[in-house]
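Write out the 3D structure for:
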Amino acid sequence: MFRWLFGDGRKERQAIVDTLYECIVASARQPQFYEHLEVPDTPLGRFEMLSVHFFLVLHRVRDKEGALKDIAQELTDHFFLDLDHSLREFGIGDMGVPKRMKKFAKMFYGRLASYTEALDANDRDALANALKRNILPDQVNWDGAGPLADYVFRANGALNDITDQELAAGKLRFVSFEQEKNQ
């Protein structure tokens, strides 16, 4: 009854979602992905790396209830709202945005399914093939697919070391690609 007056924790949760999303974006923008693995430093290449990191967080919180389930939904909303804003910044008009958003949603959820299947099966080759198919589909060989798959597996392990309470409080740590190369 008085939620509108006193709030229901939305501002606090929004701050947590913003913090988590900023960490996802910062991790996806690590220069090593673009310099060493030759991920294209283009809007589509950045979308791919953002999708990989966003997938990792969603994979970590899947099947969770309560605050983490709410945060996962709000992160997903934030991801697609950010994508919508990006399309508009590229000059896509109001009539073209919904069609492109539908295409990007289909692309993202397809990636989510293939990455989940490979990660759950502990199949590095399947993950490397899925990454190659999505990130550089026109190249016959891409030497970065295997190292990126290794990174995803290690990043997944590191995310599983973060407690649910830490995540619900907005604490998220990704391993850096440089750390992974040196291990």
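DSSP finds ten helices and no strands in the chain.
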